[in-house]
Structures are given as C-alpha cells and as structure tokens.
Amino acid sequence: MKKLLLFLVSACVMLGANGANQLEGTNQGMSPIWDDNRLVGIDRYDSYFGSLWTYLQGNDYFSYGVAIAIIAVLVAFSAHYMVVGPKHFDHHSGKVYAFSKYVRLVHLIAAISWVILVPTGVIMMWGDLFGGGFFVRLMKNLHGIATILFAISIVPMFLMWGKRMLLSLYDIKWMMIVGGYLSKIKNPVPAGKFNAGQKAWFWVAMLGGFVMILTGTAMYFLNFNTPVLSSVFGLTQVEVLRLAAIVHNIIGIVCAVFLLVHIYMAVFAIKGAIHSIITGYKEEEEVYILHHYWYQELVKNGLMKPSKFEASYTNLK
C-alpha cells in the first residue's frame, strides 16, 4: 500500500512539473501543438516587411520620431511667437459670414476626433513608458471611438470643401512668402477662402486620414482575409498587418505635426481667428489681408461691399 501511495505521489509530481513547463513555455518545441506545424503560412520576422517592422519598432524609431517632431514644432512656434508675434486685426469693423452651422458642426466633429486621435496615438507609441495596462488600453479604446467620429466627418468635409481646396497657381506665391507670417507687416497675401497651408492640412487629413482608417481597422480586427492583396501583391495576412502598422505610424507622425500647426495658426498666430469656426464670422480686415482673392470674389459677386481697408492697403491683381 505504501509503495502504491509513493508511486501515485511521484506520478503527480512529475505530471505537475511537466504541466508547469508547458505553461511556462519551456517545452513547447517538443509539443506537436506548438512546433513549426502551428506556424505554417506565417512568414518569419526576417522576411518581407517583418525585418523592417522589427527594426523600426524594436529600436523605438516611431516613438522617438513622433516625440522629436512634436518638440521641434513646439520650439519653432515658440520662437515665432516671441520674435514675430501674432497678427492682430480690427475686431470693430465689418464681419464676413464664412461658415454655416452645418460646416461648423462637421468641423467640430472632425476637430474633436483629431484632438483625441493624436494624443492617444502618441501614448500608445510610448505605451511602455506609461506602464501599459488599463490606462493604455483606455487610450486604445478612445482612439478607436475617435476614428469612428472622423470617419463620420470625412465625406461631408470632402463634399463641402473639396473644390475650394484644389491648388491654384497663387498658392505657390503664398508658399514662397509663407503667407506673410514671417513678417510683422500686414500686407494682402495671395489666398482664396483657404490658403495653401490650410489646403495642405486638408489633403493630409483627408487622404492620410482615409489611409489611417484602413490601416487602423486592419490592426484593430487582426483576423481578416485579404484575397485581393494576396493574389495581386502576394502579401499574406501577417505581411498586410506589418505594412499597415508601418504606414499607420508614419502618416500618424505627419498628421500630428500638421494638427499642431493648424492649432497654432488658429489659436496663437492670428488673434481671434478661432472664433470664426465658432460663430461663423471672420473679421473684415482679416479677410482682406489673409484671404484677399476670396475678398475680391465676394465683392465681384455682390456678396459684400468694397472694404474701407482698400484705402490702407494695395489690392492684389
């Protein structure tokens, strides 16, 4: 009887030790479940985009890239604010109706989504610094919700602003003088209702945002079939995920920079400019100086009278 008990105890100890090894993953190579047969069809990390992804992610290039870009932009804007300073326009003259309630509502939805998307995306890039866990998971969920908000706004924004955002020849002139923002002197600049900088941000947000929706969706759901990509480009599901992560992070860094530029221009570089997307009205002098060709269009179409500021500045041809 003692021998039987001793045998049973020994057997339990051996099974328990073996089970512990399986849980710890120390004996997976000997298991028919965890051997190479389980990985059939999954590309190794040293193939295709695997090596590029592990190189970029493993060396924290994405995390440091977004951090350096944000710091550089903040330093540049601080220098601009201290050296050149914000532009001030007359807030006691006429006002020009620029944005309808519908436009402002769509812009508000897009603005809320981007204000959530960028910081939550940055936090996920630096997830280990924030300790991972509940907080980073919360940021991931907020990122997903904000993506839905942006997806709702992307089509209305394209329909209401797409035509106005097409590039014109005078946009080249605007870019050559950086919209006059490097000078303290106020002179009419070549710009329509939207200047070249706003147009650049629009297309980055629209096209880049659309690509980020696609790549983000791929990474969120993970398990999906891509027969078209497999047949046309020869990419497996894992390769699509790796490429999606690379593209998503790179475009995300670009979008973070453009969003900061957009916020700086609306809140700091032009005093009171942000009120136009809240009330719908722009100051007459601001329209005359910063959107001079739109001003000429409004006067030509009888939508506003010639401005009193024509006596103080030279009209652009």
From TrEMBL:
Spans traversing the lipid bilayer: 61-84, 105-127, 142-161, 200-223, 243-267
Gene3D superfamilies tied to this protein: Transmembrane di-heme cytochromes, Chain C (1.20.950.20)
Membrane topology field: Multi-pass membrane protein
BP GO terms, sorted: anaerobic respiration; formate oxidation; respiratory electron transport chain
UniProt KW keywords: Cell membrane, Electron transport, Heme, Iron, Membrane, Metal-binding, Signal, Transmembrane, Transmembrane helix, Transport
Keyword Transmembrane helix attached: yes
Single annotated GO MF: electron transfer activity
Cofactors named for this entry: heme
Main location: membrane
rRNA processing is among the record's keywords: no
UniProt similarity note: Belongs to the formate dehydrogenase gamma subunit family.
PANTHER family: FORMATE DEHYDROGENASE GAMMA SUBUNIT, FORMATE DEHYDROGENASE, NITRATE-INDUCIBLE, CYTOCHROME B556 FDN SUBUNIT
Protein name: Formate dehydrogenase, cytochrome B subunit
Taxonomic classification: Bacteria, Pseudomonadati, Campylobacterota, Epsilonproteobacteria, Campylobacterales
Gene name, Swiss-Prot/TrEMBL: fdnI
